[in-house]
Amino acid sequence: MTQTSDVLLTACRALDINPAGAELIRAGENTLFRLPGGIVARVTRADQIQTARKETRVSRWLQERGIPVVEILPDLAQPIEVGNRAVTFWRELPPHQEGSIQQVADILRQIHTLQPPPDLQLPPLAPFVRLEQRIAEATVLDDADRKWLLRHLAELQQRYANLPAGLPAAAVHGDAWGGNIVDTSDGPVVLDLERFAYGPPEWDLTSIAVDHVTFATMSATEWTAFCQQYGHDVTEWPGYPVLRDARELRKVTFAAQMANQFPWLKNQALYRLACIKGEKGARPWRWSPIP
Fold this sequence. Notes:
Blueprint: H1 2-15, E1 23-27, E2 31-35, E3 39-43, H2 49-64, E4 80-82, E5 85-91, E6 96-98, H3 101-111, H4 131-137, H5 143-161, E7 170-172, E8 181-184, E9 187-190, E10 197-199, H6 202-213, H7 220-230, H8 240-261, H9 266-276
Antiparallel strand pairs: 1-2, 2-3, 3-5, 4-5, 6-8, 7-10, 8-9
């Protein structure tokens, strides 16, 4: 954490923000720190500066469109670039919990009605972003695992290029679930804008569907309630299996990536891989959460 902490300190000095007592919130795709004065600092991985710039634009745009969203600190030139990493500063949310099925469905429906203006520079949806890098860097994988995953990735990319017609393309969150659309005392708030993009809304809906179909962490009653609130059942769309497989692959490679930092996750990463290879029976699979 020393290197990340040094990046944070450099960014705080650039904006005259007090870093004293910085508290680590989470270290995952990005590293989040709680700072004095109700501020949360978000430090990216390497080479994610453009993504950080997008997040600041999206936060301001969603606020303008009346979508409740985590707020970038105003009147500051953000992001701060430190080497090949970026730091952004946000207003800390009040106490919150995962959003309800109805809240997630309602917020996604609102987002999916939005057509982003050209100056927002919203990128096309990239379902496979960083997967090849994750596969290459995951130390828990052997050469045979890597070869299988790369073949599977290539097949999915081809299938995605030939998706059947579906809902009209729109703004999409990119990583939709109850932990990224949270419930506060003031109502739902959208978090984690890193994967925000323009593309098929079915990608967001599939993120929810796999909780029911792939992992059985969402009951049939809850899934029906989600579909009714949103107004569409993505599992009935012919392109659903492609997006389902892509979501599952992302979760496999994320576990493999995190096992580099936390060796105790090795067994979970390899179990997930065995599942998508067809070695652990049919869905649903019981995958343990990654912290």
